[in-house]
Amino acid sequence: MRLEPPEKVTREQITLDVREIEPLLQAPPMDLKPWPGAMITLKDGSTMYIREAKLEEAPQMMDYVKKVMETEHDFYDIVGARVYAELMGWYRKRLKDPYTLVGLIDGVWVGLGNGRLMSEDINISLHTMALRRGLRVGATMYYAKTYYAFEILGNEEFWATYESYNGWWRWGVGMAQPSYPWPEYQHELGGARVYYITKKYWDKVVKDYVRQMVGADLVFDVPDEVIKANEVMEVPEEVLV
Question: Which is nearest to 125 in space by CA: 116, 134, 133?
Fold first, then answer.
């Protein structure tokens, strides 16, 4: 858009360094407490270590998620597309206050749980994915990120929405999550209905429900050998969803 200036100016051309523009495009980050790392024993006896993903791991994670985008059942195509955009937003610093948790078994990536903070009070759940079936990896990753929201970050509300019938049945109905009136409140994933958990509801009901579903609890006193075994992430070649 161009308009003639309403007064004579002595300098008609202004050059900007992109480093001066970047602060306007990149949201100033909040001071988030880090996820400390935790392990849990899965139903087959294996140990899954849950840690924060490293930024340099994002490209290989996105390569895997590209394959998920090609899966045309149970809404994995749209989930894959959105997770890819979320990982890219994190990688390119175009997502406000994101967190990306990965579940690893002997270094192999088996689970994802990500989200972002809208404010100090509201934690927005984005996606939870199980890359290996039959071990309750998805439930464990969901438990980890809700635990992170309420027990570590001290958030007051956890907002979620559901793209698949399975997710809605397992979490929306399973946890009897209330929803905010729509369309006054909309989740950022396509403007869908916002389902939420409050800190009070987490303490009274949800924490025990999810822990019972998982069948074990998070252990934060992680031995050095477990940390070392999962320091380097291996992305599986085959997509099992």
Answer: 116
| In-domain check, residue 3 | no
- 40 and 48 in contact (C-beta within 8 Å)? yes
The count of structural domains within the chain is 1
224: left (phi over 0), alpha (psi -120 to 50) or beta: alpha
CATH number at residue 180: 3.40.630.30
- Domain containing residue 187: 37-229
Q: Which portions of the chain are predicted below pLDDT 70?
A: none
Q: What is the largest CA-CA distance in the chain?
A: 77
Full-model pTM: 0.93
Return the exposure string of 154-189: e unless at least 16 CB atoms fall within 10 Å of the residue's CB, then b: ebbbbbbbbbeeebbebbbeebebebeeeeeeebeb
Could you say which DSSP state residue 234 is in? B
Helix (H, G, I), strand (E, B) or coil at 151: helix
Q: Are strands 98-105 and 195-198 parallel, antiparallel or unpaired?
A: unpaired
Q: Which amino acid is at 24?
A: L
